[in-house]
Amino acid sequence: MAHERVLFTKEMKKDYTILLPNMLPVHFKLLEKIFNSHGYRAVLLENNDRAVIEAGLKYVHNDTCYPALLIIGQFISALQSGKYDPNKTALLLTQTGGGCRASNYVPLLRKALAKAGFAQIPVISLNIAGLEKNPGFKLTLGLLKRILYGVYYGDLLLSLVNQCRPYECTKGATKALADKWVEYLADQMSEGKSVNYKTVRATYIEILRDFEALPRTAQKKVRVGIVGEIFVKFSPLGNNDLENFLVAEGAEPVLAGLQDFLMYTLNASVVDTRLYGINKTKGRIMKKLYDFLHKKQLEFIRLYRENSSFIPPTDFEKTRAAIRGYINEGVQMGEGWLLTAEMLELIESGVKNVICTQPFGCLPNHIVGKGMMKVIREHHPNVNLVAIDYDSSASRINQENRLKLMLANAARDLENGATAPQEAPELVH
Protein backbone atom coordinates (compact mmCIF):
# COMPACT_ATOMS: atom_id res chain seq x y z
CA MET A 1 0.00 0.00 0.00
CA ALA A 2 1.44 3.39 -1.02
CA HIS A 3 1.49 6.08 1.67
CA GLU A 4 0.68 9.69 0.95
CA ARG A 5 3.76 11.79 0.51
CA VAL A 6 4.23 14.77 2.83
CA LEU A 7 6.16 17.57 1.11
CA PHE A 8 8.93 19.49 2.83
CA THR A 9 7.76 23.05 2.20
CA LYS A 10 9.55 26.40 2.19
CA GLU A 11 7.80 27.28 5.45
CA MET A 12 9.17 24.12 7.09
CA LYS A 13 12.75 25.13 6.31
CA LYS A 14 12.57 27.86 8.94
CA ASP A 15 11.83 25.77 12.02
CA TYR A 16 11.97 22.06 11.14
CA THR A 17 14.83 19.87 12.34
CA ILE A 18 16.18 17.56 9.60
CA LEU A 19 17.56 14.27 10.92
CA LEU A 20 20.42 12.62 9.00
CA PRO A 21 21.31 8.91 9.20
CA ASN A 22 24.92 8.14 10.13
CA MET A 23 26.65 6.15 7.40
CA LEU A 24 30.07 7.85 7.42
CA PRO A 25 30.62 9.64 10.76
CA VAL A 26 33.18 12.20 9.50
CA HIS A 27 31.60 12.82 6.10
CA PHE A 28 28.10 13.20 7.49
CA LYS A 29 29.24 15.43 10.38
CA LEU A 30 30.54 17.81 7.73
CA LEU A 31 27.32 17.36 5.75
CA GLU A 32 25.36 18.40 8.86
CA LYS A 33 27.35 21.63 9.10
CA ILE A 34 27.05 22.30 5.37
CA PHE A 35 23.25 22.06 5.53
CA ASN A 36 23.19 24.34 8.56
CA SER A 37 25.28 26.93 6.71
CA HIS A 38 22.56 27.00 4.03
CA GLY A 39 19.73 27.82 6.43
CA TYR A 40 18.61 24.30 7.39
CA ARG A 41 18.54 22.84 10.92
CA ALA A 42 20.24 19.49 10.39
CA VAL A 43 21.14 17.00 13.13
CA LEU A 44 23.33 13.92 12.58
CA LEU A 45 21.94 10.92 14.46
CA GLU A 46 24.37 9.10 16.73
CA ASN A 47 22.03 6.56 18.34
CA ASN A 48 23.51 3.13 17.60
CA ASP A 49 22.26 0.87 20.38
CA ARG A 50 20.13 -2.27 20.21
CA ALA A 51 16.98 -0.12 20.12
CA VAL A 52 17.87 0.81 16.51
CA ILE A 53 17.78 -2.83 15.42
CA GLU A 54 14.63 -3.56 17.43
CA ALA A 55 12.82 -0.61 15.82
CA GLY A 56 13.97 -1.74 12.38
CA LEU A 57 12.76 -5.30 12.99
CA LYS A 58 9.41 -4.02 14.22
CA TYR A 59 8.61 -1.57 11.43
CA VAL A 60 10.46 -3.01 8.39
CA HIS A 61 9.62 -6.31 6.71
CA ASN A 62 12.21 -8.91 7.65
CA ASP A 63 12.79 -9.68 3.96
CA THR A 64 14.18 -6.16 3.46
CA CYS A 65 17.95 -5.70 3.31
CA TYR A 66 19.88 -5.01 6.51
CA PRO A 67 20.95 -1.42 5.66
CA ALA A 68 17.28 -0.43 5.21
CA LEU A 69 16.43 -2.00 8.56
CA LEU A 70 19.23 -0.07 10.28
CA ILE A 71 18.60 3.30 8.62
CA ILE A 72 14.85 3.20 9.19
CA GLY A 73 15.36 1.78 12.69
CA GLN A 74 17.75 4.62 13.53
CA PHE A 75 15.19 7.21 12.41
CA ILE A 76 12.26 5.67 14.27
CA SER A 77 14.26 4.98 17.43
CA ALA A 78 15.34 8.65 17.47
CA LEU A 79 11.75 9.82 17.00
CA GLN A 80 10.53 7.54 19.78
CA SER A 81 13.20 8.85 22.15
CA GLY A 82 11.24 12.06 22.69
CA LYS A 83 14.22 14.29 21.76
CA TYR A 84 12.51 15.62 18.64
CA ASP A 85 9.07 17.13 18.07
CA PRO A 86 7.44 14.89 15.43
CA ASN A 87 5.43 17.87 14.20
CA LYS A 88 8.60 19.89 13.58
CA THR A 89 10.92 17.18 12.25
CA ALA A 90 11.86 15.95 8.76
CA LEU A 91 14.08 13.06 7.67
CA LEU A 92 16.68 13.01 4.89
CA LEU A 93 17.91 10.04 2.87
CA THR A 94 20.54 9.90 0.12
CA GLN A 95 19.65 7.95 -3.04
CA THR A 96 21.50 7.09 -6.26
CA GLY A 97 18.47 6.07 -8.33
CA GLY A 98 20.08 2.78 -9.38
CA GLY A 99 18.58 -0.69 -9.53
CA CYS A 100 19.41 -1.59 -5.92
CA ARG A 101 16.65 -1.84 -3.33
CA ALA A 102 18.19 1.28 -1.77
CA SER A 103 16.25 3.28 -4.37
CA ASN A 104 13.09 2.11 -2.57
CA TYR A 105 14.19 3.18 0.92
CA VAL A 106 12.09 6.37 0.81
CA PRO A 107 8.72 4.60 0.30
CA LEU A 108 9.80 1.94 2.78
CA LEU A 109 10.57 4.67 5.31
CA ARG A 110 7.20 6.37 4.74
CA LYS A 111 5.41 3.06 5.27
CA ALA A 112 7.35 2.44 8.50
CA LEU A 113 6.67 5.98 9.74
CA ALA A 114 2.94 5.55 9.22
CA LYS A 115 3.02 2.23 11.05
CA ALA A 116 4.90 3.81 13.96
CA GLY A 117 2.49 6.76 14.18
CA PHE A 118 4.66 9.38 12.47
CA ALA A 119 2.87 9.69 9.12
CA GLN A 120 3.00 13.50 9.30
CA ILE A 121 6.81 13.61 9.04
CA PRO A 122 8.18 14.62 5.60
CA VAL A 123 10.96 12.57 4.02
CA ILE A 124 13.52 14.36 1.84
CA SER A 125 15.38 12.45 -0.88
CA LEU A 126 18.89 13.79 -1.50
CA ASN A 127 19.66 12.75 -5.08
CA ILE A 128 20.79 14.09 -8.43
CA ALA A 129 18.73 11.57 -10.41
CA GLY A 130 15.46 13.55 -10.22
CA LEU A 131 13.70 10.92 -8.11
CA GLU A 132 11.82 13.41 -5.90
CA LYS A 133 11.79 17.15 -5.28
CA ASN A 134 10.65 19.24 -2.33
CA PRO A 135 9.81 22.98 -2.41
CA GLY A 136 11.71 23.60 0.83
CA PHE A 137 14.91 21.74 -0.08
CA LYS A 138 16.97 22.78 -3.09
CA LEU A 139 20.26 21.36 -4.31
CA THR A 140 21.82 24.64 -5.41
CA LEU A 141 25.22 24.81 -7.09
CA GLY A 142 26.71 26.34 -3.95
CA LEU A 143 25.32 23.54 -1.77
CA LEU A 144 26.54 20.85 -4.19
CA LYS A 145 30.04 22.36 -4.22
CA ARG A 146 30.24 22.31 -0.43
CA ILE A 147 28.95 18.73 -0.30
CA LEU A 148 31.71 17.77 -2.74
CA TYR A 149 34.29 19.55 -0.58
CA GLY A 150 32.95 17.58 2.38
CA VAL A 151 33.54 14.36 0.45
CA TYR A 152 37.15 15.42 -0.27
CA TYR A 153 37.82 16.20 3.38
CA GLY A 154 35.99 13.12 4.66
CA ASP A 155 37.92 10.79 2.35
CA LEU A 156 41.21 12.38 3.37
CA LEU A 157 40.57 11.97 7.09
CA LEU A 158 39.27 8.41 6.61
CA SER A 159 42.50 7.48 4.81
CA LEU A 160 44.89 9.23 7.20
CA VAL A 161 43.23 7.93 10.37
CA ASN A 162 43.45 4.35 9.12
CA GLN A 163 47.11 4.81 8.13
CA CYS A 164 48.07 6.39 11.47
CA ARG A 165 46.01 4.80 14.22
CA PRO A 166 47.55 1.28 14.06
CA TYR A 167 51.03 2.81 14.39
CA GLU A 168 50.52 5.76 16.76
CA CYS A 169 53.07 6.08 19.56
CA THR A 170 50.52 7.64 21.92
CA LYS A 171 47.19 5.85 22.10
CA GLY A 172 44.35 8.15 21.12
CA ALA A 173 46.59 10.73 19.42
CA THR A 174 45.20 10.02 15.96
CA LYS A 175 41.60 10.37 17.04
CA ALA A 176 42.39 13.59 18.89
CA LEU A 177 44.03 15.03 15.78
CA ALA A 178 41.15 13.92 13.56
CA ASP A 179 38.59 15.40 15.97
CA LYS A 180 40.49 18.71 15.93
CA TRP A 181 40.33 18.82 12.14
CA VAL A 182 36.67 17.80 11.99
CA GLU A 183 35.84 20.69 14.31
CA TYR A 184 37.95 23.09 12.21
CA LEU A 185 36.42 21.92 8.93
CA ALA A 186 32.91 22.08 10.36
CA ASP A 187 33.57 25.72 11.30
CA GLN A 188 35.04 26.38 7.86
CA MET A 189 31.89 25.02 6.26
CA SER A 190 29.45 26.79 8.55
CA GLU A 191 30.82 30.30 8.98
CA GLY A 192 28.94 31.60 5.98
CA LYS A 193 32.05 32.91 4.26
CA SER A 194 33.00 31.78 0.77
CA VAL A 195 34.78 28.42 0.63
CA ASN A 196 36.37 27.74 -2.74
CA TYR A 197 38.59 25.03 -4.18
CA LYS A 198 41.74 27.09 -3.52
CA THR A 199 40.87 27.11 0.19
CA VAL A 200 40.11 23.39 0.14
CA ARG A 201 43.42 22.60 -1.58
CA ALA A 202 45.44 24.63 0.94
CA THR A 203 43.60 23.01 3.87
CA TYR A 204 44.14 19.59 2.32
CA ILE A 205 47.91 20.19 2.38
CA GLU A 206 47.78 21.41 5.99
CA ILE A 207 45.95 18.24 7.07
CA LEU A 208 48.47 15.99 5.29
CA ARG A 209 51.41 17.73 6.94
CA ASP A 210 49.74 17.70 10.36
CA PHE A 211 49.18 13.94 10.24
CA GLU A 212 52.68 13.42 8.79
CA ALA A 213 54.10 15.00 11.94
CA LEU A 214 52.19 12.56 14.19
CA PRO A 215 54.72 10.22 15.93
CA ARG A 216 54.33 6.67 14.59
CA THR A 217 56.17 3.38 14.91
CA ALA A 218 57.85 1.66 11.96
CA GLN A 219 56.36 -1.71 12.91
CA LYS A 220 55.00 -3.82 10.06
CA LYS A 221 51.37 -4.79 10.43
CA VAL A 222 48.87 -6.77 8.39
CA ARG A 223 46.98 -4.51 5.97
CA VAL A 224 43.35 -5.58 5.52
CA GLY A 225 41.17 -4.22 2.73
CA ILE A 226 37.47 -3.62 3.29
CA VAL A 227 35.06 -3.69 0.34
CA GLY A 228 31.35 -4.34 0.02
CA GLU A 229 27.89 -2.81 -0.02
CA ILE A 230 28.33 0.90 0.65
CA PHE A 231 26.46 1.10 3.98
CA VAL A 232 27.94 -1.95 5.69
CA LYS A 233 31.36 -1.11 4.25
CA PHE A 234 31.47 2.35 5.85
CA SER A 235 29.01 2.39 8.74
CA PRO A 236 30.19 1.24 12.20
CA LEU A 237 26.54 0.47 12.92
CA GLY A 238 26.29 -1.72 9.82
CA ASN A 239 29.56 -3.65 10.19
CA ASN A 240 29.80 -4.00 13.97
CA ASP A 241 32.56 -1.38 14.20
CA LEU A 242 34.82 -3.34 11.85
CA GLU A 243 37.58 -0.74 11.52
CA ASN A 244 38.01 -0.43 15.30
CA PHE A 245 38.00 -4.21 15.60
CA LEU A 246 40.80 -4.58 13.05
CA VAL A 247 42.91 -1.90 14.72
CA ALA A 248 42.38 -3.54 18.12
CA GLU A 249 43.57 -6.83 16.60
CA GLY A 250 46.77 -5.19 15.35
CA ALA A 251 45.85 -4.67 11.69
CA GLU A 252 45.61 -1.64 9.39
CA PRO A 253 42.22 -1.18 7.65
CA VAL A 254 42.37 -0.06 4.01
CA LEU A 255 39.28 1.46 2.34
CA ALA A 256 38.63 3.39 -0.84
CA GLY A 257 36.79 6.64 -0.17
CA LEU A 258 33.34 7.88 -1.09
CA GLN A 259 34.66 9.75 -4.14
CA ASP A 260 35.24 6.42 -5.89
CA PHE A 261 31.57 5.53 -5.43
CA LEU A 262 30.51 8.94 -6.79
CA MET A 263 32.70 8.43 -9.85
CA TYR A 264 31.31 4.92 -10.31
CA THR A 265 27.77 6.34 -10.19
CA LEU A 266 28.56 9.02 -12.79
CA ASN A 267 30.31 6.47 -14.98
CA ALA A 268 27.18 4.28 -14.99
CA SER A 269 25.35 6.80 -17.21
CA VAL A 270 28.36 7.02 -19.52
CA VAL A 271 28.40 3.21 -19.82
CA ASP A 272 24.64 3.10 -20.53
CA THR A 273 25.12 5.53 -23.40
CA ARG A 274 28.07 3.57 -24.77
CA LEU A 275 26.47 0.12 -24.50
CA TYR A 276 22.84 0.85 -25.27
CA GLY A 277 22.82 4.26 -26.98
CA ILE A 278 20.36 5.65 -24.40
CA ASN A 279 20.27 8.98 -22.53
CA LYS A 280 22.94 10.48 -24.77
CA THR A 281 22.60 14.02 -23.39
CA LYS A 282 22.75 12.75 -19.82
CA GLY A 283 25.70 10.57 -20.75
CA ARG A 284 27.66 13.56 -22.09
CA ILE A 285 26.92 15.61 -18.96
CA MET A 286 27.93 12.78 -16.65
CA LYS A 287 31.14 12.25 -18.64
CA LYS A 288 32.10 15.90 -18.09
CA LEU A 289 31.35 15.58 -14.36
CA TYR A 290 33.34 12.35 -14.23
CA ASP A 291 36.32 13.97 -15.96
CA PHE A 292 36.12 16.89 -13.51
CA LEU A 293 36.20 14.59 -10.46
CA HIS A 294 38.96 12.48 -11.97
CA LYS A 295 41.11 15.56 -12.59
CA LYS A 296 40.67 16.60 -8.97
CA GLN A 297 41.48 13.07 -7.78
CA LEU A 298 44.76 13.10 -9.71
CA GLU A 299 45.66 16.41 -8.09
CA PHE A 300 44.92 15.04 -4.62
CA ILE A 301 47.14 12.02 -5.36
CA ARG A 302 49.94 14.43 -6.28
CA LEU A 303 49.39 16.40 -3.07
CA TYR A 304 49.71 13.21 -1.03
CA ARG A 305 53.05 12.42 -2.62
CA GLU A 306 54.43 15.95 -2.34
CA ASN A 307 53.39 16.60 1.26
CA SER A 308 53.48 13.25 3.06
CA SER A 309 54.72 9.68 3.08
CA PHE A 310 51.18 8.28 3.20
CA ILE A 311 49.78 5.97 0.53
CA PRO A 312 47.50 8.09 -1.68
CA PRO A 313 44.12 7.05 -3.12
CA THR A 314 44.27 4.93 -6.25
CA ASP A 315 43.63 6.60 -9.59
CA PHE A 316 40.06 5.55 -10.39
CA GLU A 317 41.04 4.82 -13.98
CA LYS A 318 43.41 2.19 -12.60
CA THR A 319 40.55 0.77 -10.53
CA ARG A 320 38.36 0.61 -13.65
CA ALA A 321 41.12 -1.12 -15.60
CA ALA A 322 41.53 -3.80 -12.90
CA ILE A 323 38.31 -5.58 -13.96
CA ARG A 324 39.45 -6.37 -17.51
CA GLY A 325 39.11 -10.09 -18.04
CA TYR A 326 36.94 -10.47 -14.94
CA ILE A 327 33.67 -8.56 -15.29
CA ASN A 328 32.05 -5.99 -17.58
CA GLU A 329 31.24 -2.37 -16.72
CA GLY A 330 27.65 -3.10 -17.72
CA VAL A 331 27.24 -4.97 -14.42
CA GLN A 332 25.83 -2.08 -12.38
CA MET A 333 23.29 -3.45 -9.89
CA GLY A 334 24.21 -2.75 -6.29
CA GLU A 335 27.89 -1.80 -6.15
CA GLY A 336 28.26 -3.70 -9.42
CA TRP A 337 31.68 -4.06 -11.01
CA LEU A 338 33.15 -1.56 -8.52
CA LEU A 339 33.07 -4.16 -5.74
CA THR A 340 35.06 -6.62 -7.86
CA ALA A 341 37.38 -3.83 -8.99
CA GLU A 342 38.14 -2.75 -5.43
CA MET A 343 39.13 -6.31 -4.47
CA LEU A 344 41.41 -6.57 -7.49
CA GLU A 345 42.92 -3.13 -7.01
CA LEU A 346 43.71 -3.89 -3.36
CA ILE A 347 45.41 -7.14 -4.34
CA GLU A 348 47.42 -5.48 -7.10
CA SER A 349 48.55 -2.76 -4.67
CA GLY A 350 49.88 -5.36 -2.22
CA VAL A 351 46.93 -5.76 0.15
CA LYS A 352 46.57 -9.55 0.16
CA ASN A 353 43.86 -9.77 2.83
CA VAL A 354 40.40 -8.52 1.89
CA ILE A 355 37.09 -8.59 3.76
CA CYS A 356 33.95 -8.38 1.63
CA THR A 357 31.15 -6.95 3.80
CA GLN A 358 27.67 -7.82 2.59
CA PRO A 359 24.12 -7.54 3.88
CA PHE A 360 22.73 -11.06 4.16
CA GLY A 361 20.59 -11.82 1.11
CA CYS A 362 21.86 -8.89 -0.99
CA LEU A 363 21.77 -10.69 -4.33
CA PRO A 364 23.64 -8.11 -6.50
CA ASN A 365 26.55 -7.80 -4.11
CA HIS A 366 26.77 -11.53 -3.45
CA ILE A 367 27.22 -12.00 -7.20
CA VAL A 368 29.89 -9.32 -7.68
CA GLY A 369 31.48 -9.99 -4.27
CA LYS A 370 31.40 -13.56 -3.02
CA GLY A 371 30.53 -14.81 -6.51
CA MET A 372 33.77 -13.40 -7.96
CA MET A 373 36.10 -14.79 -5.32
CA LYS A 374 36.70 -18.12 -7.02
CA VAL A 375 37.97 -16.59 -10.25
CA ILE A 376 40.01 -13.99 -8.34
CA ARG A 377 41.70 -16.76 -6.33
CA GLU A 378 42.47 -18.63 -9.54
CA HIS A 379 44.48 -15.64 -10.76
CA HIS A 380 45.83 -14.70 -7.30
CA PRO A 381 46.26 -17.97 -5.36
CA ASN A 382 48.10 -16.37 -2.42
CA VAL A 383 45.35 -13.93 -1.37
CA ASN A 384 43.10 -14.20 1.64
CA LEU A 385 39.49 -13.29 0.76
CA VAL A 386 36.77 -13.52 3.40
CA ALA A 387 33.09 -12.74 2.84
CA ILE A 388 31.17 -11.67 5.95
CA ASP A 389 27.38 -11.43 5.93
CA TYR A 390 25.82 -8.82 8.22
CA ASP A 391 22.26 -9.18 9.49
CA SER A 392 20.26 -8.65 12.65
CA SER A 393 20.35 -12.40 13.32
CA ALA A 394 24.02 -12.95 12.42
CA SER A 395 26.31 -13.90 15.30
CA ARG A 396 28.86 -11.17 16.01
CA ILE A 397 31.07 -13.70 17.82
CA ASN A 398 30.99 -15.97 14.76
CA GLN A 399 31.93 -13.04 12.52
CA GLU A 400 34.81 -11.95 14.75
CA ASN A 401 36.12 -15.49 15.12
CA ARG A 402 36.34 -15.80 11.34
CA LEU A 403 38.12 -12.46 11.16
CA LYS A 404 40.55 -13.48 13.92
CA LEU A 405 41.38 -16.67 12.01
CA MET A 406 42.02 -14.62 8.87
CA LEU A 407 44.23 -12.20 10.80
CA ALA A 408 46.14 -15.02 12.48
CA ASN A 409 46.87 -16.58 9.09
CA ALA A 410 47.82 -13.20 7.65
CA ALA A 411 50.17 -12.42 10.57
CA ARG A 412 51.84 -15.81 10.14
CA ASP A 413 52.26 -15.16 6.43
CA LEU A 414 53.72 -11.72 7.11
CA GLU A 415 56.24 -13.21 9.53
CA ASN A 416 57.13 -16.34 7.55
CA GLY A 417 56.62 -15.18 3.98
CA ALA A 418 54.07 -17.93 3.29
CA THR A 419 52.25 -17.74 -0.04
CA ALA A 420 49.09 -19.81 0.43
CA PRO A 421 46.94 -18.58 3.31
CA GLN A 422 44.25 -20.83 4.72
CA GLU A 423 40.72 -19.78 3.84
CA ALA A 424 38.43 -19.01 6.74
CA PRO A 425 35.39 -21.31 7.03
CA GLU A 426 32.01 -20.12 5.79
CA LEU A 427 29.80 -18.26 8.23
CA VAL A 428 26.86 -20.31 9.43
CA HIS A 429 23.87 -17.97 9.41
Description:
Residues 418-429 have low confidence and may be disordered. With 429 residues, this protein is an alpha/beta fold. The protein is built from 17 helices and eight strands. Among the domains are: 10-138, Rossmann fold; 221-256 and 315-429, Rossmann fold (3-Layer(aba) Sandwich), CATH 3.40.50. A four-stranded parallel beta sheet has the order 2-1-3-4. Strands 6-5-7-8 form a four-stranded parallel beta sheet, sandwiched between helices.
In a nutshell, what does this entry contain?
The protein has 429 residues and is an alpha/beta fold. The chain has helices spanning 10-15, 25-37, 50-59, 66-80, 105-116, 141-164, 173-190, 197-212, 230-234, 242-248, 258-276, 280-307, 316-321, 336-348, 363-368, 373-379, 396-416, and strands at residues 17-20, 41-44, 89-94, 123-126, 222-228, 251-254, 353-359, 384-390. The strands form 2 sheets. It has a 4-stranded parallel sheet.
